[in-house]
Amino acid sequence: MKNYFLPRIFFLLLTLLSFSACSEDDDAPNDDDGGGSGNGNATYDGRTFNFTQGVVAEFGQGDEGVYNFDIDLLSDDFDIDFENEEINGRGEVLYFEMWTSQSSELKEGTYKLSNGESDFGITFADFSEDYNFNLDEGSLKEAVEAEVVLSRSGSIYSLDYTLNFADGKTLTGSFEGDLYEVTAD
């Protein structure tokens, strides 16, 4: 099995780096918030996890004429420090690599892992428990099936998601809140 976790974490950190380089821009995040704020939870294996912050990163056009946006939802155990380009703490992370035909933002609709790199596609979806960005340790569960229903009003995203894993377990949940929108250089 190919490990996509380290490149994904690299891209999230790269995104944070590009943020700090543009800290004088009007759209730069506030360092005191730590990340886009929201309210969400997920249930997995009889346990409930809360997600209270997140980032949507625009990575531009892919090979198939669609555009890549990655969403990371993080538990409140993390402190995102844009100024120092760090994510501190240990907690849970949900990740979705999503594709749309719209270049400026994710379209509202249902995204599926089976659609791949196409409109309303997801190429990777995973869940990490007890993850520490500084030590690059924690567990990673890569979904074999995933669906995200996305709607939004301005910068407020509403996500309902289901991830199925190879071991037969399922993670379901929802998130509603303001995600920091960033462009990776």
Automatic annotation (TrEMBL):
Signal sequence bounds: 1-23
Domain of life: Bacteria
Signal keyword on record: yes
Keywords annotated in UniProt: Signal
Protein name according to UniProt: Uncharacterized protein
